[in-house]
Design a protein that fits this description.
Layout (H helix, E strand, L loop, with lengths): L1 H17 L4 H33 L6 H26 L17 H9 L2 H35 L1 H4 L2 H5 L5 E6 L2 E5 L2 H37 L3 H52 L4 H29 L2 H6 L1 H10 L5 E6 L6 H22 L4 E8 L2 E8 L35 H9 L4 E5 L6 E8 L3
Parallel strand pairs: 3-4
Antiparallel strand pairs: 1-2, 4-5, 5-7, 6-7
Amino acid sequence: MGNGEGTGTGGGLRAVLRAPVAGRTWREFAHLLIGMPLSTLYFSLTVTGVSLGAGLLVTFLGIPVLAGVLAMCRGFGHLERARVRALLGADVADPTPIRAAKTGGLAAMGALLKSGSAWRHVLYSLIHFPWAVFSFCLALTFWAAGWSYLLYPLWYWVFPAYTDEPGLQLFQNDDYSFFLDSPAEIALTSLVGLAFTLTTPWVIRALATVDRVMVGGLLGPSRLASRVSELESDRGVVVDTAAADLRRIERDLHDGAQARLVALAMDLGLAREKATQDPRAAARMVDEAHGEVKIALQELRDLARGIHPAVLTDRGLDAALSSVASRCAVPVRVTVELPARPAQAIEGIAYFTVSELLQNVSKHAGARLASVDVWKSGDRLLIQVADDGRGGATTGAGASAGAGAGAGASASAGAGTGTGTGLAGLTERLDAVDGVLVVDSPAGGGTTVTAELPWRP
């Protein structure tokens, strides 16, 4: 415990000492310095353009002037996003392009004037100016004071050599002047400069953080546009998942029950031909066909259970998950505490999530015990599958089908060996319905996978 704390303290101290010369600090400082002249330009042009356009609204000329100002501000936004991306490392997405319903100049101007994104760019050009002036002055003051005081012992000789003064004059009161000229005062000045120098990077980072927030909130896509894009992406995931499930069902039918039924029909045809010539052989073939019928029926039941188990529809999650747990290779404790049944779609996703995780526990975890807990918290349905196996599971894009609870404990079962149909696939499925998947799987410490779904009655 002591070693860990010492390491953390030492690492934090090194980070503080390196901060004044770190590349991030210099880039953020450059961003703040460049921001003031750019913001002054944005503010001046925007105020002039908006004032001119508003004044000309009594004539038709005001509309194209305002549209031109909006287009100009969107150009400013493009420059600001590039500047933030290069100097602050914040990748702010471009706003949704403005599309006119019809072709022509009037339609384009109308689309610009009705664009909320364009007006947010105007707002940014107006409100960023006072902030840019404040952050420029504060950052430059801290930076100049810190480095000049810190290096005062190296340049204080300038005063007696060129100004006939013993040192830096701190203040003057009538006939009394105080100069920083004694060794103790010089050393104290350097210490004050060191304090300013070590503090400056954190002041600069705080100011730069405000810039990131302003650019992301005003110059990026709106929350509604982001949500629409997210829903479009989720819809694509749902479509791909449904297509993959249909291909799996077709493959299982073609390679399993269908092939078995074709062979069964051929055997019954041969048995019918031999019924008169060799009754015993025909009876033996009928017995074999009867066994094949039982196997085909079992395969069809398994396939139907994989599509949507009847026990889930009839009796709910508690009974369905208990049925899944009974087929797991390790003992599983199931606890379901729900005040009512959620929507069928959510219930089905919860069932198949637990089913896949328990399947991976059986195949890859090397566990002795596992547990499944399902409960409702607020407007969310929570599922937790835990085991005491090898751990090491991840949600990396390369996770294999064994990257479920307890998977990933070895190189063969872990992330990076499959095609992303394990935890990565589960994450995509849950994300499609605004769900979340969280994995806690330290190597050698077992695995706990928590899934969170919206509660829809």
